[in-house]
């Protein structure tokens, strides 16, 4: 408390509280606060709890000696701040904090101004919530200079504009947002905020007093690429846990508020293998059925017994877990197919439900339960089992999986009139529709195709070499019709022709003849049909067309010459 010295004359010898007393207006200063009283000098202090404000004239400073009052001298007792109540750290707050309580005396009864001044900056007024002579509550303004963290707080009394003592304060770091607010380990996160502090400098960004933490994991120096009062750029550090982590920025040993960041598991689709379906958890016969087996990461091609309508396949596929460990029961997936463009640029759609209308759909094997945990691994790179799946969505992973492990799934899918000769790619995605972080291999296949329409149609005499021109005649018991044939995959391919008098339409109803089958392994082969007079009439003009057959699949018709069908 400040000592006040009054100099003058005829003050007497001692304070008695009645006839010899120091007054401020009508208030008498207790004798206990008077340390010196002589005829020419009085030294006293104003009690801290007094609510007298002082003023001029009779409201000012008066000395009463032997019952006689002196003239009043201008004298003011200033507002006094005695304490500051803040949310967490003493005498410190963040921009926008509410309910900051200022305790003291002589604030006045009318609302006035509370100012915050940061070092070297202009004063900024706070929003007043409540005001009384001994207590004020305020909201901290948001316009404080971000680059300065220390300063003072004071208030002004409205009745006489007297200003209180300065109270030292600190503005704490504040995180306003994280961008992005979720990601995998290594994701660069922008920490946006105010008063995050100046850059501690390279080599000092990950210390006990200056650091960034995700949960309990402190980012390394190498994780932090930049630091300013309003933006810190940091990678999600290794060692964090999956799920919600609180991010806190510490500068000069002062912590910011916390902001939530969701650390995600990363997934990479890795290896696959096609299997023939079996009514069990473990398929045993790699595609195609029989002794021939396609290797891992091998497409089902046209010569690999490609699937046709209603065929059921099994797809073993694994996914690499990265970033952070995958907790048991925390993730489910979907299987998708696509047929336009390459596997990296196709348009994807979900594999349909069991008995759904999609070209690829789930399938219900009688014995294994959909979503059952696998009992064994088939892929050479797998080291964690997942589930057997007959339809989307998959069950959640049954076991915890560590970073770097490959978790294996088994999908059952059925061809539901998928267009013939079409290439399809498959991929797994998260059940919420989010694509995996990356894809190393895409399972793919081509559906069973129709044989190609025949080419190089020709008609010959019985010797098979003498051609008969379009519109020509033949004096022979036999006419040989030839064509070049190509199919899909491998197997036996058959030539067929339809022949009718020129006056009749070729409509596929009658007069259709099939020649002998020819073994097809990928190279063009010649097919022929021999016609005799028992099959066609003498002295009649005919026209004909041809197609090919493989099993129950037929090519389109192709007409010979310029004759209309």
UniProtKB/TrEMBL annotation:
Stretches of the chain forming a coiled coil according to its record: none
One Pfam short name: TIG
Domain of life: Bacteria
Boundaries of every IPT/TIG domain copy: 2-72, 173-261
Name of the protein described by the UniProt record: IPT/TIG domain-containing protein
Species of origin: Candidatus Jorgensenbacteria bacterium CG11_big_fil_rev_8_21_14_0_20_38_23
